[in-house]
Amino acid sequence: MSNPKKIDLPIEELKKITLAINENIIANKSRSKEDKITTDKFIKQFGINRKNFSETIKDTNIKYNKSTFFYDIGINGKENFPATKVNSKQVNIGSEKINYSKPVKNQEVYQVTTESKPKEIQNISNDKFQIPSEFKEILSLTGDLKEMLSWYKKQTNTNIIELPELNINNPKLGGEVVTRSFKMYKEIAEDFSCFAESRKETQKDLISLALVEFINKYRR
Hints:
about 220 residues, mainly alpha, two-stranded antiparallel ribbon, 7 helices, 4 strands
C-alpha cells in the first residue's frame, strides 16, 4: 500500500472538495444502504483519493471532526472585514433627518416629557397589596430551592463522562501477525474505514485493540 502524498491544490479548491464531502455525508443519511456513496468513492471524482486528501489538509485550517464525522473549515488568524462607508452628514431615521456633523448645541433637542397629575396620585394603603398565601409559601422555600440548585450543579459537573484515549501499549498487541478473513456488515465496514482514516494508529492495531477489549469485557 503506497504512502499518502500531499497534493498541490489551492486552499479554495480544498474547501470546495470539503463542502462537497460534507454534503454527501448528509445525503447518505437519507439514502438506503445500497445507494450510500462512501467518501473514499465520492472523493475520486475530484482526482484525489481519501488518504492523499487527508495528508494535503494537514497544514490547513480544514480538520476532520471525530465527534460529528464532518470536516470543519476554521479561520486562521484574523479575518479583516472591509469597513462600511457611512455618510457622516446625514442619517435618516424614518422621515426625519438628523445632522450629526454639527455640534449638539446647534441642533434641536427633543425632550420627552411626562405630565403628572398630583390629584391622580393617591396613597394606597398596604392592606390592598396582601401577598397570597401560596406565594408566601413559595418564598419561604427560597433557601431550600437554592440548596437544591447548588446540589444539582455539583452533580452535573461531577458526572461528565470523558472519552478515554486509545492506548495501544497493550502487551497483546505484539508478536506474530496473522491474516484472518471474516465477513461484516457493509455500513459498519464503511464507518470503520472513515474512523481509521482519522486515526494515527493502523487498522491492524485498532481492530486488535477492539477485540481485546471486547473479550476482556464479556469473558465469563
